Every structure is written in structure tokens, then in C-alpha cells.
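step 3/5: co-fold with flavin-adenine dinucleotide
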Amino acid sequence: MFDVVVVGAGLSGAVMAREFAESGKRVLVIEKRGHIGGNCYDEKNEYGILVHRYGPHLFHTDNKEVVEYLSRFCDWELYQHRVLASIDGMLVPLPFSFASMRKLFPQALARKLEEKLLARFSYGQKVPILKLREADDTELRFLADFIYEKVFLHYTLKQWGITPEEIDPEVTARVPVLVGTDERYFTDRYQMVPKEGYTKMITKMLHHLNIALMLQTDAKEILRLVDGKFQLFGKDFTGVVVYTGAIDALFDYRFGKLAYRSLDLVFETLQTERYQEAATVNYPNDYDFTRITEFKHIHKVDSPFTTILKEFPKPCGEKDEPFYPFFDETNRKIYEKYAALAETFKNLILVGRLAEYRYYDMDDAVARALEVFKKVFQR
Ligand SMILES: Cc1cc2nc3c(=O)[nH]c(=O)nc-3n(C[C@H](O)[C@H](O)[C@H](O)COP(=O)(O)OP(=O)(O)OC[C@H]3O[C@@H](n4cnc5c(N)ncnc54)[C@H](O)[C@@H]3O)c2cc1C
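step 4/5: write C-alpha cells
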């Protein structure tokens, strides 16, 4: 019946399913949750406010091909994300920049630090905090230590349970110090959100005559690995299996479990038009949550209510959602064993953040799926 089985109806699975369907293949998409969209899933709550069930999702990219591809399935609302951090009782823009220094320090000191930064780095440069900490100049060192302590250290401890030094440098580099005044959180060329939300966009991607969708079905129930071969509904399946779920689960954790960080996501709806100044406010040093996001900033709506989300990080237990891969040497090695095993299956394609055990932003996930599909077709 089917030429291709796609496990997971998140963004990666949806792109792969769509591409195969458009190339004339009959595709079965299997999704264990009761909805499509993976972690990008959004929905209108009872107050008519569009909320992101698995944490705030902001689309930003420099990749025009990805924008053009997704534009086939949605109209966009231009939106540039702003994040403030609560530091010493003040709200200052993130990434930490000249604008943040001007809010926190006496003006003469802020100006002096700006000059010192400009003498060393170029205007607009994004400097990872660990690199800034290598500065030998006393005042720059003071600045680096201040930012490290007030912006990074306690946030990272909350988010990851370890210090910035212990974490993969790719992660800390994602929130750099900005040598400049741009107060936007992202500086990518394209920053927007789908006008009707991510779920509607992904629904359109999956809406194709060649695509059948099964929700609330763990792939394990119908797709089995028997003697190194796949069986679908109990019969040998020689078509392509695109797997976007967790790679360790696919192989029954035989080399051990890969570690993730998870989040308790706590939504609150309040009877007030506005809760906070920016879409997201980070609390690096206070409380147990890392940040609060107010969705009305992202998706404008006229309502006397507003919905906010507090994120409480935690290790990923049995019943928790695996949100962020926990990169360290041990887990990297475990992943490599699974990846090598996966290579031995000719008809298996692993794609997406869980299958590749990588943090992918949405644009990366789309670009990666398109690239993988092209490679399959060249085979
Ligand atoms: C808290 C958070 C915030 C984020 N914010 C942003 C942001 O602001 N901007 C941005 O660009 N990106 C953001 N991302 C990243 C974004 O979520 C990912 O890029 C995107 O979800 C990747 O899609 P995916 O399909 O690879 O994975 P997923 O969305 O995880 O989809 C995988 C799907 O596979 C299903 N599945 C797994 N195993 C099975 C199985 N055995 N059987 C059937 N189905 C299965 C899962 O239920 C899930 O629906 C964020 C991620 C998180 C966790």
C-alpha cells in the first residue's frame, strides 16, 4: 500500500512526507501524539489567544530557500522578537549589548566600555561570552565577569544543571554579547510567524492525496524491526522508512539512553490586557523558572485577557518530553553507536532533532529535511 513510512508529524516529518508525496510516492505518516506539528504545535486557547504548547517558537532565518518553501503553506506576519532580562531589578535588552550597558551602568562607564569593545571587536560583531572572558584588559574583564555572572551563569545552571564552561560551546554561542545597539533578539534577514500559526502551516503541508496520517499511534505498534528488517502491519516492508523520533527508542535503548533536558511548562491566563513589556522576559538570577513569554506580543489579538508561559527546566524523566539534547562526551559516543547501527539499514532515513540528536531551529530542520530528500533522490 505505501512506498514510504514517515514516523513523526513534526516539521521534519512533514517536509519529508510532502516531498515524497509530490514525487508520486504513497506516504503513511505515523504520529504518537494526538496532533501534528511536533514541538511547533500551536493552538488557540479558550480565550482566543494563540499559544505554543511546547514553548515559544519564533521563526528566524537567513535561508531564502526555506522561506520560499514554507511560503507555499502559509502567509506570514512580520514579527521581530525582543527579549528582556531582569538584572538587578532592571529590565535590559538581550542579547547583552550597548543598550543593556547603558541601562545598567553609569553613563561614563558604559561609554568607556563601549570604546574598549570597539577597539577590540568590530561593530555588530557577536562575541561568545567565554571568548569575552579571555580579555586581558581590566575593564573588559570586569564587564565579561559581570555579564557572565548576571546573564549566563545562573541561567545556564537552571536550564542545563551545569555551568557555561561544562556545556557545548555551540549552546553558549547561541546567546552572544553584541558589540552594538541592535535590541532585537535575532538579526536574521527573515523574521516572522505564520499568520494562522504553525499547526495550520503544517496541516497544509500534510494535506496531499498521497499522504495518509495516523495520529495517537506509536510507530512501535505497527512498524517493527525483525531480524534487521522492517515489518509494517506484520508484513515485510521494503519501502523507505523516514524516522524522526528518538534514535535510542528506535533501537530499544540497546546502547543506553540518550540524555535530554526537559521543561515543566506552566500557562497562566490573567485578566489584564498586557502583562510585560516584551514577548519574553528572562529571569537568570531569580525564581526557579528561566523565562516568561506573553503570547499576545507574538500573535496580536484584541482581548481583555493575556496568556503567559513560565518555563521550569528539569532533567528528562521517563514521562517527560525530551526537549533539548544534552551534549556531552558520554552522550555523543552513545549517539555515534546508534548512528552507525542506523547506517546498516539501507531503507532507513534518520532526520530531525530527535533522530539526529541535535538541536535544530525550525529553519535548520526544514533545510535539513530538504537536503536529505534531495540526497535520497540522487541515490
Ligand atoms: C522549548 C523549545 C523552544 C523552541 N523554540 C524555537 C524557536 O523559537 N525557533 C526555532 O526555530 N526553533 C525552536 N525550537 C526548535 C523546534 O521545535 C524544532 O526545530 C522542530 O520542532 C524540529 O522538528 P522535528 O520534526 O525534527 O522534531 P519534533 O517537533 O520533535 O517532531 C518529532 C515528532 O515525532 C513524534 N514521534 C517521536 N517518536 C515517535 C514514535 N515512536 N511514533 C510516532 N511518532 C513519534 C513526536 O511525537 C513528534 O511529534 C524550539 C524547541 C524547543 C524544545
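step 5/5: annotate
The CA atoms of residues 223 and 235 lie 9 Å apart.
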